[in-house]
Amino acid sequence: MKYKAIVFDWDGTLMDSIAKIVESMQASARHLNLPVPSYDQAKNVIGISLLPALQQLFNIHDDKAAMDLFYTYKAQFKDHKQVSSPLFDGAIELLTTLKNKGYVLAVATGKARLGLEHNWQHSNTGHFFSLSKTADDAKSKPSPDMLQQILSELNLSADQVLMVGDTTYDMAMAEAINMDRVGVSFGVHSTAALQKHKPVAVINELSELLLHV
Predict the structure, then answer these.
(1) Distance between CA 102 and CA 141 in Å, rounded?
(2) Cα(9)–Cα(3) distance, rounded to whole angstroms?
(3) In the chain, where are the structural domains located?
(4) Alpha helices, H only, 102-180
């Protein structure tokens, strides 16, 4: 085994939740009479922790306005029940195979803890992961804080762990600590954008990850 642990991003990497996140951001803008971002504008900030993502997307610097938007988004996301967020094809099979091979699996996500655990419950995937870091636990990507905490808790070095994600934020945080990384092409950012961070590979479907571990 080349690595002892594999860290996954969540949204856009294992779960196909991009449409729901974007629609919730757009609905929040309409609710607060803010300019409604385009699909691509909203999509581009997915991966950053929610509050800084919203501040960046809407160019908001006032703390109260930012928090109003933050809680409006939370309510809109909860109300968008009709927009499903399934796992990507092959996710369960991949996680099962990796777990059976003896890899330690972890998640590093810009989601809140409550949101991640809700997703785990509904997708029956929580048991695959030995630990996770969320927006509640660490600095937002692209800071490597999440990965550094994971390394510390697992008592592993960066060269023993692989990061898998769909955004340049995922690639940048791994690159910052010289951790190998694999991008996925079916999430938020393009293959060309991911390649700028020199990943081991950019895969087009989850099953391809097995070729690189």
Answers:
(1) 27
(2) 17
(3) 5-16+85-212, 18-79
(4) 113-123, 145-154, 168-176
Contact, 5 vs 160, CB < 8 A? Answer: yes
Tokens 């592993």 belong to 156
The CATH number assigned to the domain with range 18-79 reads 1.10.150
Name the band, by pLDDT with cuts 50, 70 and 90, for residue 1.
confident
Task: Give per-residue pLDDT as tens, 24-81.
Answer: 999 999 999 999 999 999 999 998 999 999 999 999 999 999 999 999 998 998 876 6
Residues 6+ apart with CB under 8 A from 71: none
CATH class label, 5-16+85-212 = alpha beta
Tokens of 10: 């969540």
- Residues 106, 110, 111, CA angle at the centre, nearest 5°? 90
Amino acid (one-letter) located at 116? L
Tokens of 142: 């692209």
